[in-house]
Amino acid sequence: MASNTKKPILIAGAGLASLLLAQSLRRSSIPFQIFERDASISFRGQGYRLRLSSEGLDAIESVLSPEDWQKFWDTCGKTGGSGFGSMDAVTGEDIGEKGTGDEGKGRPLDLTSRKGKIVGIARGEMRQLFLSGCEPHVKWSHQVTGYEVTSSGVRAIFKDGSKSDEGEMLIGGEGIYSKVAKQVSDGKLKVYDTGARGIHGQAPTTAFKDLGEGVWRAVDESNPSGKVFVITNVRAKDMDNPNIEFGWTMGAQPGVIEPPNNDMAIIGRPAAEIAKKFAANWHPKLKAIFDQMNEKEAAFWKITCSTPSGVPEWKTEPRVTVIGDAAHSMTPAGGIGANTAVRDSALLGRLFAEAGGYQEGITAAYEKEMRVYASEAVGHSYGMATKQFGVKIDENSAVV
Fold first, then answer.
1. Which of 153, 263, 322, 400 has its CA 20 to 30 A from that of 302?
2. Does residue 299 form part of some domain?
3. What domain range is 363 assigned to?
4. Which residue ranges does UniProt annotate as crossing the membrane (predicted)?
């Protein structure tokens, strides 16, 4: 549909949700401008591998062109099985737990999403695919710290005090530290620090040969500091490709994994050495992952979560809204966060497409629908995290 919008839709942040929204606007010929604080897409680590749910895949497919969707689908890895294969990290024995349960209630967690397969993709690959075609519309090294609403639009305000050209609307998609989210919600949108930390990294496929195909969760309850676990995805189709590395994610209860000087930006060998220390007495089929890891890819991550009761309501500002982690931060339990974020992009993009650009009422319609599925997702993610990580947060917990 041709756009009747002359001024662009402004987007803060160039993460997954922002870039997928940009793809939707591009297909609808609606002008947009993205502002990203990093200097380039490769400025920092891209994080761990993402599992895509049926809802997440449906959202992405609804946005991308048939050609771009096929390229995306071909890039995704497909793993057999229906859920986690759980084992004791020290003995390597099956602990008889097929899945971690639904919110700790003991029901198996089915991870399949299409054609009986578990579908996943590296965050960096996903981001690169969503960026394709949008590169001319991204201004790097532009950190949005606020906005001002004008009589006929909105301007983004940057860290150096300068302002953008006027846009029709501003979408805050700059993650858990979003300044747009804090301003538009008058502080109601909060992201809590659960206190739990993790390490993610990569290793060559040869390190996974003794595990076999599947999504594996290994738990070490013998660690004197607290429970430690690792999750990884072994795809048989890629096992013999020397150019492919599989990702792994290590997590633990609050206080167990701590980066040096509490510096979450540390990457490479310092993070790798800590991961190796925890895996030192693990079974050889797991220990090999850490012995052979690509040390420069190791990085820490902080486990955060929005209010488990759901996405709060705030006074709607027609010219400003938020998507993805800026609206609803989630723990990594169940891989729900990214799938909910792309649903935001698809929903808001569809509303723009149907209207041919910005129209008053779009923001309220988006936020009303988003709150329903996102609140359910946050609660589900938090429920699983209480079982997996032993976290507990409330309104008095520390915020990021």
1. 322
2. yes
3. 9-73+124-192+306-388
4. none
Judgement on whether residues 112 and 245 belong to the same structural domain of the protein: yes
Model pTM? 0.88
pLDDT single digits (tens) 156-195: 999 999 999 999 999 999 999 999 999 999 999 999 888 8
Residues 369, 354 share a domain:
yes
Tell whether 331 and 354 lie within a shared domain: yes
**CA distances (Å), 317 to each of 26, 80, 164, 282, in order?**
24, 45, 19, 53
Amino acid, res. 101: G
- The answer to whether residue 105 scores a pLDDT higher than 60 is no
Residue pair 333/102 in contact (Cβ under 8 Å)? The answer is no
For residues 321 and 364, membership in a common domain is answered with yes
Q: Please tell me the predicted confidence (pLDDT) of residue 45.
A: 52
CA distance 202 to 295: 8
Q: Name the domain count of the chain.
A: 2
pLDDT digits (tens, 9 = 90+) for 210-262: 998 888 989 999 999 889 999 998 988 888 887 888 989 999 989 999 998 88
The residues with which 204 forms a beta bridge, in sequence order, are 245
Q: What is the CATH number of the domain that holds 222?
A: 3.30.9
Three-class SS of residue 260? Answer: helix
Question: Which of 303, 329, 346 corresponds to the end of one domain?
Answer: 303
